[in-house]
Amino acid sequence: MPRLHDLAKQVIDRREWDAADLIDFMLQDSKGKRRVPYFGIKTVRLATRWLHELVSTLRIEMTNYKIPVDSLIYRVSCRLGIIDPNRDKYFGEDSPADLKIQSFVKKIFPDRPYILDEPLWSTGRRAVDGGHCFPQNPNCYGCLFKNICPKKFVDINPEKLGMDTALTPVQRKRVPTPEERAIKERQARFAKFVEELKQKGIKGKEYRKKIMQWYREHQNK
Question: Most buried by CB count within 10 Å: which residue of 4, 80, 133, 205?
Fold first, then answer.
């Protein structure tokens, strides 16, 4: 949170930005280190869009904004016929599929290329998340693009043909750091202490006194 607060202050202080420069600035510092943990390219681009739409004191030139391509956007783009997974491969920025998707978006909305970002990826989500264009056999009923979609590659998962599998996120169980484990253990001890006070019937001023005493004794541990 302190890093995010510091980043937000620097963004606001400058006032005027080019979208590409702002994205690069939020991603990493001058030494190439990430400014905020877990603040990746998709999050940063989404943050740029929200800053442009919601923060009136900022002026962000969005004409060169690039929508972040992931498996959802790649899949929906294939179904819509924007790209062909047999020819248009995606292996990062400026790869054939990326160039075609960015070109299409800018052709539809020259001054606001970010407009198509959310409709594309939200359409590719799971049914439970409101999506329609599943990896195989999509449910076209109620889809935003139903009336214009040529429904290509509906029997297969097109991203497996044309998208580098290394770019598809793999769900892994995150191992907590020693600091996080220590915080969790401290929270458990505190919860146990509070429960003991309740069982003893300790309330009011005495309860608050014992809570503050416990906190003073454990705040540096």
Answer: 133
In whole angstroms, give the CA distance from residue 26 to residue 46: 12
* DSSP strand pairing (16-18 vs 59-61): parallel
Q: How many CB atoms lie within 10 A of CB 153?
A: 20
Pseudo-torsion of CA 152, 157, 162, 168, nearest 10°?
140
Alpha carbon of residue 217 to chain centroid = 39
Q: Which tens digits make up the pLDDT trace of 112-133? A: 888 898 899 999 998 888 899 9
Q: Is 196:114 a contact under the CB 8 Å cutoff?
A: no
Render pLDDT for 74-84 as a digit per residue (tens, 0 to 9).
Answer: 999 999 999 99
CA distances from 84 to 36, 69, 136 (A): 36, 15, 16
Which 8-state DSSP code applies to residue 210?
Answer: H
| Nearest Cα to Cα of residue 190 among 153, 215, 213, 156 | 215
- The three-class DSSP label of residue 130 is coil
Q: Is 17 helix (H, G, I), strand (E, B) or coil?
A: strand
| C-alpha closest to that of 98 among 82, 80, 118 | 82
Rounded to two decimals, the pTM is: 0.66
Q: How far is CA 124 from CA 62, 112, 145, in A?
A: 24, 21, 11
